[in-house]
């Protein structure tokens, strides 16, 4: 393959997918049912080809975008279910084909291209170096953080048995079974998984024994399931952390049959656990389809009947409601459900790109999303640069900044801005306290 | 594969203390900046 083809292969596929998506979006309502179902299904191989091209030629940019890919995979699967006529139990509407799937496809492919572009552009900006600590210091910090998280989880498991053994849901367990002063543990486990993953992949990179690191990672998997009682969202976060670090530390791995089989078994395992919990809750297994359809219900509504609203940018922040999420919830949920959810503090999901479309119009929202995706790619590259020179602490701050931005973009929840601001302050402080001295070879603590 | 701990650079008291202090700082930092899973 020529150099030119390797550089632009994924962009050509992206452009082809985007053109088809636009064509079907504009014409979907005029096509017979059979044609649009076929067209949506036919787009899947094209999407897989696109992801394969990225995996092959832009691997680090793709792997560090795991959260983005998973988010849009959820929206796309949901949009497929909706256009096939699934009833959306929250907004109490029956799905139709109104182009939701194609708009989601357009945002996903466009966003990925912008992210890859941002990832590549980050190399051109001047690199601000920060001092890194010696391997010994990093290792001890890893043991201190992961050790504390696992010991505390172990204590909760021994003393309070965890939500699975107790047979209660995780919210009830952490609210009622465990003293309030231990309520910080789930957050601690969630965030310190980073250090477990870093330790494993760091050892893998240096081709050293990984037994201890593997045991720590296993501890986190078990703590997530048995002590935190998490099923889906925690493992998405674990996966995102893992793939992000793989991109930085062991990027040249070969995709062999064994790893494909392991990934396949893990995916089936997660699906089986989710299906099983629905069954034990007294629901049908097909509820999983109903659940899937909820992710794109807001996008379907924003594009649906009465969808051509005048864009109102102030509604991104709530326009009279608590925030933008509250605004869009009251707009599309039936009154009784909106009030019930507000009273129990339950949130619906899939705010992006529905809320930005209401705020800026379709074209405006697409532009904003492209710009945000570019920034994501830029930050991803900076984190990878830090990790690949084994600068774990500094990389961790950039990784957290990236995750805060990802959450802000996916959930449109403005409270993420606080975390983003504090990460920016921490990064600046790190530069001020540990600047990189030119020509200095010794690391702090060695 | 080499044995992990023996081939690592030797740990000084300073690096042990630095590692533990930084570990404690990270724990504090994480607790102060919680992540809300969507």
Main traits of this protein?
heterodimer, A: about 450 residues, mainly alpha, two-stranded antiparallel sheet, 19 helices, 2 strands, B: about 40 residues, about 65% helix, about 0% strand, elongated, disordered N terminus
Radius of gyration of chain A from the CA trace?
A: 23 Å
Q: If helices are DSSP runs of H or I spanning 4 or more residues, what is the number of helices of chain B?
A: 2
Q: Can you count the beta strands of chain A?
A: 2
3D shape of chain B: elongated
In short:
The complex is a heterodimer of chains A (446) and B (38). Chain A is mostly helical and 446 residues long. Chain A has helices at residues 3-27, 33-57, 59-63, 66-83, 100-121, 135-160, 162-166, 170-177, 185-205, 211-227, 233-249, 257-280, 287-292, 297-303, 324-332, 335-344, 354-388, 392-411, 416-433, and strands at 87-88, 93-94.
Structural description of this entry:
The complex is a heterodimer of chains A (446) and B (38). Chain A has 446 residues and is mostly helical. Helix content of chain A is 71%, strand content 1%. Chain A is built from 19 helices and two strands. In chain A, strands 1-2 form a two-stranded antiparallel ribbon. The longest helix of chain A is centred in the C-terminal third of the chain and has 35 residues. The N and C termini of chain A lie far apart (47 Å). Chain B has 38 residues and is mostly helical. Helix content of chain B is 63%, strand content 0%. Chain B contains two helices and no strands. The chains are: A mainly alpha (446), B mainly alpha (38). At the A-B interface, helix 6, helix 9, helix 11, helix 18 and helix 19 of A face helix 2 of B.
Outline the secondary-structure elements.
The complex is a heterodimer of chains A (446) and B (38).
Chain A: H1 3-27, H2 33-57, H3 59-63, H4 66-83, E1 87-88, E2 93-94, H5 100-121, H6 135-160, H7 162-166, H8 170-177, H9 185-205, H10 211-227, H11 233-249, H12 257-280, H13 287-292, H14 297-303, H15 324-332, H16 335-344, H17 354-388, H18 392-411, H19 416-433
Antiparallel strand pairs in A: 1-2
Chain B: H1 4-7, H2 13-32
